[in-house]
Every structure is written in C-alpha cells, then in structure tokens.
Fold each of these.
Amino acid sequence: MTNYEQFHDGFFEGVLINDRTVFVQLRTDRTNRYTAVLTGVVALSVNDLKAGNVMFEVQTRNASELTSEDIGQLYDLAEGPTGETQAEQLLKEACQKALVHFEITPSYGAICTALAQSVEIIEWEEWLKQYCKAIVSKVD
C-alpha cells in the first residue's frame, strides 16, 4: 500500500474521464495542485461529490492487497452469495491482470475508488502539458 500523506486535509477537485483514462484533480492543503492519472481503468466509482471535498487520505494498493469486500464496494455488488461469487471472480481477474486500486477516503465529501492498469500522480502543470492538448485535439 502506498499512502500519499501530502494530500491529508487537501481537496479532491474533480474527475475528467477520457475513454479508459481517468484524471483525478487533487490539491494539497498548501494549494499545490496534482493530477492522479489512472490508465486502463476497468472500474470507477465516485460518490457524494460536493463543493469543498476534503480528503482524509489518498492511497493505492496492488491487486494482491485487495479483498472481495473492496471489489464488492467498488462494483456495488449485491449482498449475499451471488454478490460474493461475483466479487471473488472479479478479484481473481484483478490479480491476474495486476491491477492497481486507487482510493480517496474523505473527511468531507466524495469517495473515489478505481481499478486501473496503472496510477501515476503528477504535478498539475505537467498534466496540462502532457494530456490537455491530446484531449482537445480528439474533440476537434
């Protein structure tokens, strides 16, 4: 597990979805801006998005660190035997594909969880240079 402590008491500013790439906008309590770049996203859940989302923690975990409960919550699976069977199968697939679990736990506001092929946190200015032109050119 990797815990990105610099985001404790920072702000979850939003999400941009571009096909199977998801950009999660983050800001530290000292107003430094970053973007979590999630590539090859297979599942994404964002709930309770509000103005002023305060983060308690941001962390990533390897598939081998996940539980079927994590998978059940991410996919919002039914409780009971059917949901448990689905969760076990999805967990097995996540492990086979060596997926990364990304999670924002809030102090206030949004919860964000995802399963992706990779997660990289970069400075916001770097995100603008690297990705924004490519996204805009796809739209044109």
Note: Strands lie at 2-3, 11-18, 21-27, 33-39, 43-47, 54-62, 100-108, 111-116, 118-123.
Amino acid sequence: MDVSLQVTFDTADPHAQADFWAAVLGYEVENGPDVSAFVDSLVESGRLAPEERIYRNGRSLFAVAAAAHDPAGTGPRLYFQKVPEGKVVKNRVHLDLNVGADRALAEVARVEALGATRLWVTDDRGPVTYTMQDPEGNEFCIS
C-alpha cells in the first residue's frame, strides 16, 4: 500500500511550532522560494486574500499554516495549522522520540534549550521515559 504520513498540529503560531519541531527533529521548514512564489501567485490570482499572507525572512508565507519535512525523506511531514482555541486537555496523539537510554538525557537538555518543558519521568512500562511539552503545551516523550 502506497501511503504517505503527515502529522498535523493545531496551533496558535504555526510558524513558531514549525521552527521548534524542525529543530528538534532535524527537519527543514518549508518556507523556500517555491512556497513564497506559490503564495504570491494565489494572492495575485485572487484565490488568497492579501491578509492571509505574511512575510517572514523576506518571503511570502501562508499566515495560518506552516510545514516541515524530513530532508532524508523517511519521516512523516509535519503540518501546523492555526486554530482559534488553545490546548485545553491532554492531546490524544503524541510523538515519541526514541533516541536510546545513552542519549535520552542529552536530548532532553537539547529540546529544553529549544523551548520544551520537562513534565515528569517514568520507567513503569520499560525504558526511562521523559514526558515533555512543546512551547504550546503539546506532550511528547523522549526515551
């Protein structure tokens, strides 16, 4: 079966979240000249209102969406869409970053430096697992 996987995040700031997760996973944010040209063409054709475009680092981008992809092409694409409401309860889906016991603490420190928050540590289901939050409060795990 030929299926590609995209993980979608509801977010208040899609561009900040794309930057955060790209840095965490070694992904590339999709904000190059091709995206900029596409956004500009949509505005010029009237299919996208001018206020739905933002400028970031000198490029036109969608105001309400951002994406990042694995440059190696093996991981899922990440898509971030702006929603009006904030996160209220525990997310029903989360990412697990499996880096190995020898690298877990270093990875926790690295993602904390990027803006993540450590919530708790458990080992009740196997390996030591660090439950974290991204800058908007979405939980993820490192083990």
Note: The radius of gyration is 17 Å.
